[in-house]
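G., the chain you wanted modeled:
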Amino acid sequence: MIQSDHNEQSEVRRSCPRCGTAIIEVIPRLPGRPKRWCSTKCRRAASEERRAAAAGAIAIEYRSLDVPLEDHVKAVLTSPAACRRIVRDLRERHDAGDLDDARWSPVAEELQRTRRHIHPTLRWGAH
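Predicted structure as tokens:
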């Protein structure tokens, strides 16, 4: 007969039914209900979704995405319209004095350097 130590514990992994995050249960299980949700946030969101579904509303799931700043910069730099909008907004903020704050001084200095390097081009018919 094989004897097992009664203090030996094992783990059972399940997934949160809402977000799929792993929930680890220790066997033998502690008294009370087994964990169903990974967090209070998921439990509350699931409750709201069930309440909305019961009222006939369409459930919408929002997920926050952590997008690195570099991805945002690349997206702006690939769009001439977005670049134009950024440059226009910075110029307007500079002209209004909104870039006079110390935390904006590197931006204001860079904008000044950019203005020095831009030479006006002649248009057709201009003298």
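The radius of gyration is 29 Å.

Shout if anything looks off.
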